[in-house]
Amino acid sequence: MEESCRESPAESGQALPLTRDSSSQTISLGPRFSKINLFSLLSLWLELFPQERPEDNNNPVGVNIIRSVGLVVVRESKVVGLHYSGHELHAGQAAIIQHAARLADCQLYFSRRPCATCLKMIINAGVSQISFWPGDPEVSMLRSGPHAPAGQISEEATLDAVATEKLKSNSRSHICLLLQPLATGMVQFVGETSRECDFMATLTDDDPGLNTEEVFYFSKRFLIEDCHQHREILNQMHLENFCVEPYFSNLRHNMRQVVKVLAAVVAGVPQQHCGFHRSASPPHHEGVSQEVARHCIIQARLLAYRTEDPKVGVGAVVWAGLNGLGRLSLVGCGYNAYPAGSQYAEYPLMDDKQEDRKRRKYRYIIHAEQNALTFRTRDINPEEAAMLFVTKCPCDECIPLIRSAGITHIYTTDHDRDRNKGDISYLRFSNLKGIQKFIVSKLICFPPFFKKISFVFAAPWISPEAEYCHLAYSGFP
Ligand SMILES: [Zn+2]
Ligand SMILES: [Zn+2]
Q: Based on the structure, what is the number of domains in the chain?
């Protein structure tokens, strides 16, 4: 398989080696995502960014069937853009509008091969690399309309394939597949941990484990069930090298594993019976809908699986937009890690169970929020709503940074809130003024006949501060 990027062994998605500190404490580390794994998963997930109007599955024959696309823009190994298709713009076009010529020398990771309309502009902007997930492309070859003969690729999709191939062969941008095998044991590790993480600590009592419905849904969306059809699509995209065994089976196996991991992370933040409620504080402007909040916190959960912390993975994403309305744009994202450029095991890895405080990690780890703000792609303008989604309650070290950066909303969990662990404390969050705080919690929903009203309460015994019932779900299934 074509490798999209070269990384060191630890970077390439292998489990980090077990290390033995001189104090002879063994640390057990789980596997982590490689950067390519993370970009694949983020791009697939972004494709499902909540839309006001769902994508139209019933286009008539002869009309282009454009599928939603997710896109991750990377510069110097840092994510500088997260994009998704909307009603007007394709994800590729949205990236052009936001980054313009700054896309030069960036790497773009698409959840589908982009259409010729997007591709010509992206190539023109001088990007260095374009990678895409090897499923059905943006101009769908799968759904050729309700009246089209089954299995036949539409003329539009064929024409688009010819044009994209022509653009590809004349382009200086390197165009390749977005797929890298996951580290050994990753699927099981995510399946086991997605519901046991700190973020969901108060919500883990119901149906733990991999959600098969979720796996089914994502498989339908991102995999091509029929082998012959998949081969045919790869051939149309001039990827005939991947149609030969054993490469074809490997490709399909690796795709399935990535989809399973995505399903497990998504299942870890249940859609039903839980949501974000606002802590007591004067409302400035509303936050985003529950669906968007859940989507963004799952982005943060994906980032958390790239942590360098031996014990607790934390992910953070900051999105901003005018009054929280319209298209949001990425400010920054990150996960907790040792300072950029440091070699693995150069710093202490121990937590507060290590008696010798010099051996503890706390003075060295850069927190997820700190990475998101340090490597932010733009400043926050004072008129906009800037929303931080973070999988762990922000600590006292981060609170002043969050406030000074201009964050207006925080979506998080209250696990560890008001606790002082010596090396790290979480005492300032509760008294943080001027920032809207939304805490994930269980919700009680009313019996089915109330569905039309469909309002939900935050459970007061879980968060005594709950003063407000968020009215965002349009109805529980
Ligand atoms: Zn397009
Ligand atoms: Zn912190």
A: 2
Q: Which residues contact 450 (CB under 8 A, 6 or more apart)?
A: none
Distance between CA 128 and CA 111 in Å, rounded? 18
DSSP of 342-353? PPTTSS--B-TT
98 falls within a domain: no
Instruction: Please pick, among 214, 308, 369, 384, the residue that the annotation labels catalytic.
Output: 369
Structure confidence at residue 421 as a pLDDT band (50, 70, 90) = confident
Nearest ligand for residue 371 CA: 2
Ligand minimally distant from the alpha carbon of residue 94: 1
Cα–ligand 1 centroid distance for 51 (angstroms)? 17
| Residue labelled with tokens 């703000």 | 373
Q: Is residue 463 one of the residues assigned to a domain?
A: yes
> Between β-strands 78-84 and 70-75, what pairing exists: parallel, antiparallel or unpaired?
antiparallel
- What ligand is nearest to the CA atom of residue 401? 2
233-248 confidence digits (pLDDT tens):
999 999 999 999 999 9
216 and 288 fall within a common domain: no
- pTM (two decimals): 0.84
Identify the CATH number of the domain in which residue 439 sits.
Answer: 3.40.140.10
Q: For residues 15 and 18, what is the distance between their CA atoms, to the nearest angstrom?
A: 9
CA of 424 to the centre of ligand 2 (A): 8
384 and 292 within one domain: yes
- DSSP characters over 404-456: HHT--EEEE--TTTT-B-SSSB--SSTT--SSEEEEEEEEEE--GGGTTT--E
Check whether residue 302 and residue 240 sit in a common domain. Answer: no
Instruction: Please check whether residues 302 and 248 belong to one and the same domain.
Output: no
Task: Assess if residue 44 is contained within a domain.
Answer: no
Instruction: State which residues form the domain around 229.
Output: 186-268
pLDDT at 148: 54
Q: Which of 268, 303, 328 is the C-terminal boundary of a domain? A: 268
Same domain, 314 and 326: yes
Residue 7 annotated among the catalytic residues of the structure: no
CA of 53 to the centre of ligand 1 (A): 18
**Domain check: are 325 and 386 in the same one?**
yes
Torsion of CA 393, 396, 347, 184, to 10 degrees: 0
Residue 246: asked if its preceding bond is cis (omega within 30°), the reply is: yes
Residue 85 lies in a domain: no
The string over 48-67, giving b where at least 16 C-beta atoms fall within 10 Å of a residue's C-beta and e elsewhere, is bbeeeeeeeeebeeeeebbb
Cα–Cα dist 457/477, whole Å: 17
| Number of C-beta neighbours around residue 252 at 10 A | 16
Q: Could you say which of 227, 246, 268 is where a domain stops?
A: 268
Q: Say which residue the tokens 């909307």 belong to.
A: 86
Per residue in 50-87, pLDDT tens?
A: 986 555 444 444 455 899 999 999 999 999 999 999 98
